[in-house]
Amino acid sequence: MKKIIGIAPAPSMVTSDECSMKNHYRLGCNYIERTAEAGCVPLGLAPVNYWLSEEALEACDGFLVQGGAEFYPYHFQIIHHALTRGKKYLGICLGEQLIYVYFEIRRRVEERGYEGDLIKAICDYIDEQGPDFSVQQKIPGHRKELPPRGNEAQAKHGVNIVPGTLLYRVLGKDSVEICSFHYLNTPPTQNLVTINAWSALGDGVVEGTEYGNNILGVQGHPEVDALLPEIFAFLAED
Prior knowledge:
The chain is α/β, with parallel strands linked by helices. The chain has a single domain, classed as Rossmann fold. The protein contains seven helices and 13 strands. It has helices at 29-37, 54-58, 73-85, 94-112, 118-129, 166-171, 229-233, and strands at 4-8, 10-12, 24-26, 41-44, 62-65, 88-92, 137-138, 156-161, 175-179, 184-185, 194-199, 206-211, 215-218. Strand 11 (194-199) and strand 12 form a beta hairpin.
Protein backbone atom coordinates (compact mmCIF):
# COMPACT_ATOMS: atom_id res chain seq x y z
CA MET A 1 0.00 0.00 0.00
CA LYS A 2 1.26 3.48 -0.84
CA LYS A 3 2.45 5.75 1.95
CA ILE A 4 0.27 8.76 2.75
CA ILE A 5 2.54 11.78 3.07
CA GLY A 6 1.17 14.85 4.79
CA ILE A 7 2.51 18.03 3.19
CA ALA A 8 2.68 21.04 5.48
CA PRO A 9 1.33 24.22 3.90
CA ALA A 10 2.78 27.71 3.96
CA PRO A 11 0.44 30.47 5.15
CA SER A 12 -0.36 33.40 2.88
CA MET A 13 -1.35 36.41 4.92
CA VAL A 14 -4.18 38.74 3.91
CA THR A 15 -3.12 42.07 5.38
CA SER A 16 -5.70 44.41 3.87
CA ASP A 17 -9.03 45.10 5.58
CA GLU A 18 -10.47 45.68 2.11
CA CYS A 19 -10.55 41.91 1.58
CA SER A 20 -13.11 39.88 3.52
CA MET A 21 -11.11 36.68 3.00
CA LYS A 22 -9.11 35.35 5.91
CA ASN A 23 -5.52 34.19 5.62
CA HIS A 24 -5.13 31.06 3.53
CA TYR A 25 -2.67 28.21 3.09
CA ARG A 26 -0.78 27.26 -0.05
CA LEU A 27 0.90 24.07 -1.25
CA GLY A 28 3.59 24.08 -3.91
CA CYS A 29 2.64 21.85 -6.83
CA ASN A 30 6.30 20.89 -7.26
CA TYR A 31 6.28 19.24 -3.83
CA ILE A 32 3.02 17.47 -4.57
CA GLU A 33 4.26 16.13 -7.91
CA ARG A 34 7.62 14.93 -6.58
CA THR A 35 5.88 13.12 -3.73
CA ALA A 36 3.51 11.37 -6.13
CA GLU A 37 6.37 10.48 -8.49
CA ALA A 38 8.07 8.77 -5.54
CA GLY A 39 5.11 6.40 -5.30
CA CYS A 40 3.43 8.10 -2.34
CA VAL A 41 0.02 9.69 -1.88
CA PRO A 42 0.43 13.43 -1.21
CA LEU A 43 -2.07 14.80 1.30
CA GLY A 44 -2.33 18.52 2.01
CA LEU A 45 -2.61 19.28 5.72
CA ALA A 46 -5.08 21.94 6.88
CA PRO A 47 -4.29 23.46 10.29
CA VAL A 48 -7.02 25.25 12.23
CA ASN A 49 -5.65 28.52 13.64
CA TYR A 50 -2.17 27.15 12.88
CA TRP A 51 -2.64 23.93 14.88
CA LEU A 52 -3.19 20.41 13.54
CA SER A 53 -5.44 17.85 15.17
CA GLU A 54 -3.90 14.65 16.45
CA GLU A 55 -6.21 12.78 14.06
CA ALA A 56 -4.67 14.59 11.07
CA LEU A 57 -1.17 13.70 12.20
CA GLU A 58 -2.07 10.07 12.86
CA ALA A 59 -3.59 9.75 9.37
CA CYS A 60 -0.16 10.26 7.78
CA ASP A 61 2.60 7.70 7.28
CA GLY A 62 5.18 10.45 6.83
CA PHE A 63 5.57 14.17 6.30
CA LEU A 64 7.06 16.71 3.93
CA VAL A 65 7.60 20.25 5.21
CA GLN A 66 8.05 22.62 2.30
CA GLY A 67 9.86 25.94 2.12
CA GLY A 68 8.40 29.10 3.56
CA ALA A 69 9.15 32.23 5.53
CA GLU A 70 8.12 31.53 9.14
CA PHE A 71 7.52 28.73 11.62
CA TYR A 72 4.04 28.06 13.00
CA PRO A 73 2.80 25.69 15.72
CA TYR A 74 1.89 22.98 13.22
CA HIS A 75 5.51 22.80 12.04
CA PHE A 76 6.65 21.83 15.54
CA GLN A 77 3.71 19.44 15.90
CA ILE A 78 4.73 17.64 12.72
CA ILE A 79 8.39 17.09 13.53
CA HIS A 80 7.60 16.13 17.12
CA HIS A 81 5.00 13.61 15.94
CA ALA A 82 7.42 12.15 13.38
CA LEU A 83 10.10 11.78 16.05
CA THR A 84 7.87 10.17 18.65
CA ARG A 85 6.11 7.85 16.16
CA GLY A 86 9.18 6.97 14.09
CA LYS A 87 7.61 8.29 10.88
CA LYS A 88 9.54 9.61 7.89
CA TYR A 89 10.09 13.36 7.81
CA LEU A 90 11.54 15.24 4.85
CA GLY A 91 12.25 18.93 5.34
CA ILE A 92 13.12 21.24 2.46
CA CYS A 93 14.48 24.76 3.02
CA LEU A 94 12.35 25.98 5.96
CA GLY A 95 11.58 22.33 6.68
CA GLU A 96 15.30 21.59 6.96
CA GLN A 97 15.86 24.56 9.26
CA LEU A 98 12.99 23.32 11.43
CA ILE A 99 15.02 20.27 12.47
CA TYR A 100 17.68 22.31 14.29
CA VAL A 101 15.23 24.98 15.47
CA TYR A 102 12.99 22.34 17.08
CA PHE A 103 15.84 20.71 18.97
CA GLU A 104 17.43 24.00 20.05
CA ILE A 105 14.21 25.57 21.34
CA ARG A 106 13.21 22.28 22.96
CA ARG A 107 16.58 22.22 24.75
CA ARG A 108 16.03 25.73 26.09
CA VAL A 109 12.46 25.01 27.19
CA GLU A 110 13.44 21.80 28.98
CA GLU A 111 16.36 23.51 30.71
CA ARG A 112 14.15 26.21 32.22
CA GLY A 113 11.28 23.79 32.86
CA TYR A 114 7.71 23.82 31.65
CA GLU A 115 4.29 22.47 32.54
CA GLY A 116 1.79 20.91 30.17
CA ASP A 117 2.27 20.51 26.43
CA LEU A 118 5.81 20.67 25.02
CA ILE A 119 4.80 22.15 21.67
CA LYS A 120 2.83 24.93 23.35
CA ALA A 121 5.84 25.61 25.58
CA ILE A 122 8.08 25.84 22.50
CA CYS A 123 5.69 28.26 20.78
CA ASP A 124 5.30 30.35 23.93
CA TYR A 125 9.08 30.61 24.24
CA ILE A 126 9.42 31.85 20.67
CA ASP A 127 6.63 34.41 21.18
CA GLU A 128 8.31 35.68 24.33
CA GLN A 129 11.52 36.47 22.44
CA GLY A 130 9.87 38.93 20.06
CA PRO A 131 9.44 39.14 16.27
CA ASP A 132 13.15 39.35 15.44
CA PHE A 133 14.13 36.22 17.37
CA SER A 134 16.03 33.51 15.49
CA VAL A 135 18.44 30.73 16.45
CA GLN A 136 19.70 30.48 12.88
CA GLN A 137 22.56 32.40 11.28
CA LYS A 138 22.12 34.86 8.44
CA ILE A 139 24.35 34.20 5.42
CA PRO A 140 24.51 37.37 3.28
CA GLY A 141 25.35 36.79 -0.36
CA HIS A 142 24.50 33.09 -0.45
CA ARG A 143 20.88 33.34 -1.59
CA LYS A 144 20.02 33.13 -5.27
CA GLU A 145 16.75 34.29 -6.79
CA LEU A 146 14.17 31.89 -8.20
CA PRO A 147 14.93 31.68 -11.95
CA PRO A 148 12.46 31.58 -14.83
CA ARG A 149 11.01 28.13 -15.58
CA GLY A 150 13.46 26.14 -17.67
CA ASN A 151 16.45 28.08 -16.32
CA GLU A 152 16.79 26.36 -12.96
CA ALA A 153 20.53 25.86 -13.47
CA GLN A 154 21.02 29.59 -12.87
CA ALA A 155 20.20 29.11 -9.19
CA LYS A 156 22.27 25.97 -8.63
CA HIS A 157 25.53 25.41 -6.83
CA GLY A 158 27.42 22.35 -5.69
CA VAL A 159 26.73 20.62 -2.38
CA ASN A 160 29.11 18.12 -0.78
CA ILE A 161 27.43 15.20 0.98
CA VAL A 162 28.93 13.94 4.25
CA PRO A 163 29.84 10.22 4.02
CA GLY A 164 28.10 7.94 6.50
CA THR A 165 25.01 10.13 6.84
CA LEU A 166 21.42 9.25 6.04
CA LEU A 167 21.50 11.68 3.11
CA TYR A 168 24.59 9.94 1.74
CA ARG A 169 22.79 6.61 1.87
CA VAL A 170 19.70 8.07 0.21
CA LEU A 171 21.61 9.75 -2.62
CA GLY A 172 24.54 7.38 -3.01
CA LYS A 173 26.64 10.34 -4.15
CA ASP A 174 29.47 12.48 -2.80
CA SER A 175 28.11 15.68 -4.30
CA VAL A 176 25.11 17.12 -6.15
CA GLU A 177 24.03 20.34 -7.82
CA ILE A 178 20.90 21.83 -6.27
CA CYS A 179 18.83 25.01 -6.52
CA SER A 180 19.48 27.30 -3.58
CA PHE A 181 17.26 30.19 -2.43
CA HIS A 182 18.03 30.43 1.30
CA TYR A 183 19.59 33.16 3.43
CA LEU A 184 19.60 31.43 6.84
CA ASN A 185 21.94 28.72 8.06
CA THR A 186 22.05 26.12 10.82
CA PRO A 187 25.03 27.08 13.04
CA PRO A 188 27.96 24.89 11.95
CA THR A 189 29.15 24.42 15.55
CA GLN A 190 25.86 23.08 16.97
CA ASN A 191 25.81 19.50 18.27
CA LEU A 192 22.08 18.75 18.43
CA VAL A 193 21.58 17.40 14.91
CA THR A 194 23.82 15.76 12.32
CA ILE A 195 25.09 17.93 9.48
CA ASN A 196 24.80 15.90 6.27
CA ALA A 197 25.84 18.41 3.59
CA TRP A 198 27.99 21.49 3.08
CA SER A 199 28.05 24.15 0.41
CA ALA A 200 30.75 23.51 -2.20
CA LEU A 201 31.25 27.28 -2.55
CA GLY A 202 33.73 27.32 0.31
CA ASP A 203 31.58 29.66 2.40
CA GLY A 204 31.04 27.21 5.27
CA VAL A 205 27.27 27.09 4.81
CA VAL A 206 25.38 24.05 6.09
CA GLU A 207 23.23 22.58 3.30
CA GLY A 208 21.49 19.79 5.16
CA THR A 209 20.79 18.26 8.56
CA GLU A 210 19.25 15.06 9.87
CA TYR A 211 18.43 13.16 13.03
CA GLY A 212 18.41 9.41 13.40
CA ASN A 213 17.13 7.27 10.55
CA ASN A 214 13.83 9.00 9.85
CA ILE A 215 14.40 12.79 10.00
CA LEU A 216 16.02 14.17 6.84
CA GLY A 217 16.51 17.75 5.71
CA VAL A 218 18.06 19.51 2.73
CA GLN A 219 18.45 23.26 2.48
CA GLY A 220 18.26 23.36 -1.32
CA HIS A 221 15.19 22.80 -3.48
CA PRO A 222 15.21 19.35 -5.15
CA GLU A 223 11.52 19.73 -5.99
CA VAL A 224 12.21 22.41 -8.60
CA ASP A 225 13.41 20.25 -11.50
CA ALA A 226 12.88 16.59 -10.49
CA LEU A 227 16.56 15.69 -10.97
CA LEU A 228 17.03 14.29 -7.46
CA PRO A 229 14.15 11.80 -7.13
CA GLU A 230 16.10 9.77 -4.57
CA ILE A 231 15.40 12.41 -1.94
CA PHE A 232 11.64 12.00 -2.31
CA ALA A 233 11.92 8.21 -2.61
CA PHE A 234 13.09 8.33 1.01
CA LEU A 235 9.46 9.00 1.97
CA ALA A 236 8.34 5.72 0.39
CA GLU A 237 10.78 3.58 2.36
CA ASP A 238 9.58 1.30 5.13
